[in-house]
Amino acid sequence: MSTLGWVAALLPVVMWVGLLLAPWRPWSTRERIEAGPHVGPVDLSEITVLIPARNEADVIGLTLAGLQSQGSGLQVIVVDDQSSDGTAQIAASFPHAQVVSGQPLPEGWAGKLWALEQGKSHVRTPITLLLDADIQLQPGLLAALLMHKRRENRQFVSLMADLRRTSFWDRLLLPAFVYYFKLLYPFAVSNSSSRLVAAAAGGCILVDTEALQRAGAFASLRNALIDDCTLARQVKNAGYSTWLGLSRGVVSLRPYGTLGSIHDMVARSAFTQLGYSTVLLLVVTVLFVLAYGLPFLLLAGAATWRLGLLALVAMMLSYLPMLRYYQMRLAWALLLPFGAVLYLGMTWSSAIRYWRGVRSRWKDRTYST
Q1: pTM listed for this prediction
Q2: Other C-beta atoms within 10 Å of 240: how many?
Q3: Running DSSP on this structure, what letter comes out for residue 218?
C-alpha cells in the first residue's frame, strides 16, 4: 500500500481515537442535573414560567401538572399562539396559570419567539423559566436546577430533555440526536468562559430576567430557527455565564415513533446548523463517509483490517456513555453507523427543502427562504 493509502487508512482511527482522548470529552454525560429528593414545600415565588403553546391540547395539562408539583409561589404564563384546539381552555383551568392570547405572527418572526416576546412583558420576577409546552418536569427538578444555578453563579442554565423512546426508530435515532448535539456543541466548552461555543436546549431554560433584557431577547433573534443556541450566544456575548447539561427529570411528552416524524424534527433545522452553506454540507458528507464508511472498507483489507476494527471499536466506545445514561442496551452502539447514514440523509433533505424555497416547516407554518 502506498504512503497516501496508509494516511487515508489512518484517518478514521485518528478521528475516533482523537474524539475519545479530547480533553473536553464531548462523548461524556458528566454534565447533568437530576431531580432531587422531595424535602417539603419549596418557595419558587422568584420564578415566572413562560410557556409558548400552539395546538398543545394533548400535552399542556401534563406540563402544567408537573409545574404544580415543583413548589409554591410559582407563577405561570401560557402564551396561546393562535391555537385551533383546546390549548387555552385547558391551561386556563389550572390555578395560578395566566393565559395570554397571542397575536397573529408578524413577518420576519419565528412563531415560538413571537409568543415569548408577547409573554415577557408579563414577567415581574427576577428569574424566568422558558419551558416548551411539551416538557414535563419531574418533582424536585426545578429546585435542583435553581440550586445549581446559585451554586455555580450562573445567569443562564438549561437542560436537554429526555426524549421519549417507544419504537425502534426512537431508540435508534433519539439518543444519537443528543450524542451528535454534544459533538457539535461540546458542553464543557460551552459551559466555560470561552466564546467559541454557546449552546442551550430550548425546552428548559432558567435565566435571569435581567440577562434576557440585556441580551435583547427576543426581538434580537426573532427570525432564528435554532433559537436556543442563538439565545445562549446573545446572553454570553452580553457578559453572562451559561451552563448546559442533561437530565432525565426533564421529560419530553412529544411522541415521535416513526422515521418520518423524526425526519421532520431534524430536517427543519439541520441545514440551518450549517449556515445554509453547500460547502459545509459537502464537508460534513465527506467527514461522515470517512468516519462511518471507511472503517468497513478497511475491514476487507488484509493489511488494514486491524485499523478498521480499531476505528469501529473507538466509535462505539464513544457512544456507550450516552446509552448507559438513557438506560439502553449497549448493543445499540452496533447500529450507530446505520443511524449516521440516516442523519446524513436528513441533513441533505433539509438542504433540498431550502433550495426549493422552504427554510423550515413546523407547527403548520412554513418559513420561506
Answers
A1: 0.93
A2: 19
A3: T
Instruction: Indicate the Cα dihedral angle 235, 236, 241, 247, nearest 10°.
Output: 70
Q: Which domains does the chain have, with CATH numbers?
A: 9-27+261-364 (no CATH), 47-256 (3.90.550.10)
| Sheet bearing 127-131, strands edge to edge | 97-101, 75-80, 47-53, 127-131, 204-208, 156-162, 242-252, 135-137
| Residue 40 confidence (pLDDT) | 65
Distance between CA 288 and CA 12 in Å, rounded? Answer: 10
Pairing label, strands 365-368, 242-252: unpaired
Q: Collapsing DSSP states into helix, strand and coil, what is residue 333?
A: helix
Q: Give the H or E element holding residue 99.
A: strand 97-101
In DSSP terms, which residues pair with 77 in a beta bridge?
50, 98
What is the per-residue pLDDT across 176-186, written as a single tens digit (0 to 9) for each?
999 999 999 99
d(C-alpha 86, C-alpha 133), whole Å: 13
SS3 content of the chain, % helix, strand, coil (to 5): 50, 15, 35
CA distance 136 to 49: 12
CB atoms inside a 10 Å sphere around CB 282 = 11
Tens digit of pLDDT for each residue in 255-303? 899 999 999 999 999 999 999 999 999 999 999 999 999 999 999 988 8
Q: 135-137 and 204-208 as β-strands: parallel, antiparallel, unpaired?
A: unpaired
Secondary structure class of 42 (helix, strand, coil): coil
Strands 365-368, 358-362: pairing is: antiparallel
What are the grid coordinates assigned to 21, written together?
A: 482522548
